[in-house]
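Fold this sequence, please.
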Amino acid sequence: MYLVKLVSRHRNYFSIGKDYTENLSLIVHSDTLFSAICNNFRKIYGNETLEHFLTYLVGLEDNDEKYFRLSSCFHYIDIYREAELCDTIYFLPNPLVKFPLDYRSEEFRKENPKILKKIQFISYEVLKKLQQGQNLSLSQFHILDNNYLIDEKDIRLLGLEGFLTLIEEPNNHLERIERAIRRKITIFDIIDEQRVRINRISEHSDPFTESKLKFYSSNYYLQKNDKNIDLQLVPGYYFIVDFSGINNDLIDKIKSSIRLIIDEGLGGKRSIGCGLVDEVDFRELDDGFEYFDLFKNDHKGYFTNISLVYPNKEEIENVKFFNIYGRSGFVYSADNTSQRFNDVKFIEEGAVFKKKIQGKLVQVASDEFIKKYHRIYKNGIGFYLNIGKLNGD
C-alpha cells in the first residue's frame, strides 16, 4: 500500500469537473484518477497491454487476496519550518456521522448551529479519535480555512497551540495575533476568470467565465524566545493505492503510469496549465505510518469509503448512511472524445458502511463505441477506513 502525493509547489491550478456542468469538484474522484492512470498506461505500453490490464482487474473482483484499490485524491498540507519540511497533515471527506463532542465543544456547536455543516474535510487525527470513541474538540481554533476540522495535535504541528488558552482565558493581544495568522491561511480558492471566445465565421466575440481551483501557499511567523520562526503551508492532492497480491511487473507499470501525471495531468483545461503537478512522491504505508491502524480489517464497528463505490445489488444492505454521486459526461479517449458515456451513479465518499463491500468496475461505453473502439470503465471498487462504533451504538 502506498500514499502518493501530487506535489504542487508551482503548478497548482486544477479543473476537476463534477459532471457535464461547469461546476468544479474540490477533490479528484477515484474514477477520474483511474481514467487518468489508464490513459497514461496506454500511452506508455499500448492498447493491447491496457486491455489485458483491465481484463485482469475485472477478473479480480471476487478475489480476496489479490486486488487493486484506489482512493480518491484528497487535500494535504505540508508544513515547513524555516524552509524545512517537518510535518504533513492529511485530510479526508467529512463522514456522515454525528461527532461525539466534549461539553465545551457541544456548547460551541449550539451557539453556532451551522458550523459543522460547513466543514467538508477532517484530518486523520480527528478520524483516529472517532475510531477510538473519544470525544472531539470543536472551536474556532479547530477549524482551518473554514473547511477543515483539525485536532489539538494538528494545531501543535501548525505552531498554534498557544492560542488554545483563549478558549478559557480571553486575551485581546493573543486574539489579534491569532486572527492575523488565520487570515493568512488559505488552502484553496475557486477562481473565476473572464475569457472571450471568437466565432471564426461571424467574428463575433462571446465572453464566458472559466473556473479553476487554485492551491495557495500560506506564510506566517511565530515568536518564540524572542526569535521569529517562519512557517509555510503548501497544500496539494494525495491518494492511497493498494496493489496487494499483484505481481511486481504490473505494479511497476502502474507506478510509471501514475508518475506520468506530472506531464499529462488530471482533469480538464490542461492546455492552459491546469491539472499538472511538480512531483509525484510515493510513500509505502506500513505499521510505521501513524494512522495505519485505520486501514486494518480486524477492527469492529463501521467503515467509511475513501473512494466512489458501485455496489452490487446484494451489497446494498450493508450501506448505513450515504449520498449518491451521479456521473455523466463525455468519453475521454485518444480515439474519440465526442461521445457521451452511459450515466452511472456511485455511493459518494464519506458514506458509512456496516461492513466493507467490494464494489466493481463499471463498463459505461455504448455498444457502438465498444464495437468501434474499446470498452470504458469507471472505477467503483470500494476502499475503506475503519471509524469504530458510532455514537449511541
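DSSP finds ten helices and 21 strands in the chain. The CA atoms of residues 141 and 371 lie 57 Å apart.
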